[in-house]
Amino acid sequence: MIKPLSAAISSILLVYAIAGSAHAQDAAPASDTGTSQAAKKKDKAVNLGQVIVTGTRSPKAVDEIPGAITVVDKAEIQHTLLVTEDATAVLARTVPGYAESSQAMSNTGETLRGRVPLRLFDGIPQGSPLREGTRNGTFTDMGIIGRIEVINGPSASEGIGAAGGIINYISKVPTKEGNETTFTTRYQTQNHADSEGWKTGLTFTHKQDAYDLLFAASYIDRGISYDGNGRRIGMNTSGSLADSTSKNLFVKGGVNFGEGDEQRLQATYSHFKIDGKGEYIQVLGCRGPDDDPPCDVPRTNTSEKGHIFGSKDAFNDFEQYSVEYSHSNFFGGSLDINAYKADQAMRYLPELADDKQDPLIAPLGTLYDQSEITAHKKGIRTSWTRPDLFSVEGLELHTGIDFVKDQAQQRLALTNRLWVPPMNYKSTAPYAQLSWDIGPLTISGGYRREDDKLTVNSYTTTYYRNREFVQGGGVKYTENLKNLGAIWRLGSEWSIYASYSEGFTLPNIGIPLRNINVPGQSVDRISDLAAIIYKNDEVGFNWRGERAAFGATHYISKSPFGASLAIDPNTNDFILSRAPVRIEGTEVTGEWRFDDQWKVTGLYSHITGKTAFWSASPAGNYGAGGLKKPLGVLDINPDKFAAAITWNFLPNADATLGFTTLFSRHVSGSDTRAYDGATFSYDERTHGYTLFDLGVNYDLQRAGKISLGAENLFNKQYILTWSQLAGYQNYWAGRGRMISLTYTITF
Which CATH number characterizes residue 382's domain? Predict the structure, then answer.
């Protein structure tokens, strides 16, 4: 059997192969950022049948970017919304290296190429890498998203946090002159009275002369979820979408001015909040005879009506503001300045956990508490792009400087205890990127310097960690990040590329800070706070014919002092492991349009990863272990194969049948440390599954559009892959069949 090609398909290749995204995006504006630059390249992009992407900080045709980029277009987003309102489900369906959707408010285990991605909303970071709470995948109503740009692999273009890559959700823009109003309503059910849910949303756009405005508001009410056996699914301790309501308000307005409308001023406001209803409590399941307590017949977590006295509702509350100024003829180049402010808060479900007990508050084993993470950030992103630098045709300079202030902390909300102290982070990062189009060849290279500082005041850990006093202090991070790449277009159908890139992030700093349990510690001497540098090598190719496309890439990602997740055997909570990490992967995508009525798309992803069983001794007694511990489902997704077939069976009607398969996997490894003879081993088995979904649209012309969606079409009973690994109260089944009916009218 031929070993699968590695890694995620390249800019071009991924865009081409993903369900018609390239064709759909030709007619859509790239984004408000750099609109004038995109306009200059419009003709070229259309002739190539490709799209202009903005996630690289300057609008650029995908066949000029030597890296793997996925563009998920409006059509694919809308199809996914027929099936589910989960914000990350569309990524699991269309991005080869993206893990399975958690089907929850939490995005635990949802990695990109085995690493945590940086999620952006119109370029603004969601959540904080200082305390990664796995909640930053649910931050807006997907109905206002025009497209999603995914830069696969580590990238320094957006600064801190892009370990696995960048996922930029880009809001819609007004395209039609005058007024346009779209009303959407949706009903969903799993054929149980308490599973019913509904959505109503309104979007208004106005575009006239130099002015444009977009206003959107929506409300979603979700019932409880059931698995394929008709059994209620347990409430996710990190936050459930089930039994919740969400409200979203989004306003964006802009004005073009100056000679030839070469300048633009735009302001945006977004407020999204999802609240748990608090009508159900979790009933823990049992994995079998070896569980504690044991059981003869395994049973997953379920839910029953009830409320824990004194507890508060779980929520995600994301609010952000931004003001952007652009000038398309500023000293011969295009200037863009974006100032933003974002406030984010995440509260989790109540837990009767060992690490939340305190005998000064309540007898041990009786204290419920809820953790709550808050993050506040503000920043300025600047860029200036100068084409034909030094009068050399095709030579382009892109440069700028970014400023960011980020603060995050975690408290135990019911008892008002500090769990993770306030972490203050400041970053100043100048960067420069050169690219040169030499006929069919594009060469690019860039440099970004991170000059950052983390400050934490003195604090005391909780009772479970021995109430240890930790001396505050600061840690400086100075990193020089480079990238280099080339892409060669062979005729009108083939492209090949190679690239080297570096990324920079911090570990999940809140975890080592809250876990300190020995005296005499200070913030500036904690080795686990050291930065993580990722180095990524990648090669790929793309072929695009008149009715078909195919492509693949292979990548190797290394971090000498990386970070991976493990389960604490005492608390079943996550612990951070700092040791070398190496990830290698292959991704393949393809598309075939039989004729104007039929289209088939597909993707395949294969990822493997290794780390060490132990990191280097702080005292210098021994070095880090060899790369003998396999990365499991908390870091690396099993092999994935997905495909979909679309049939336009009437001029005004279409149907799409898709499936996603996650393969079974067994990984194991062992090692012995020569220094003290300590032995280590790891063994993990996960079982795969295949899920089908169906979406049908019927356009009633002036009367609107009616759509039918079916998630898990054949009502498959399965356990989520990341939930197959024993952890804290995490034994959840996946959702059974969900039927949805959506009606949309535009006037």
Answer: 2.40.170.20
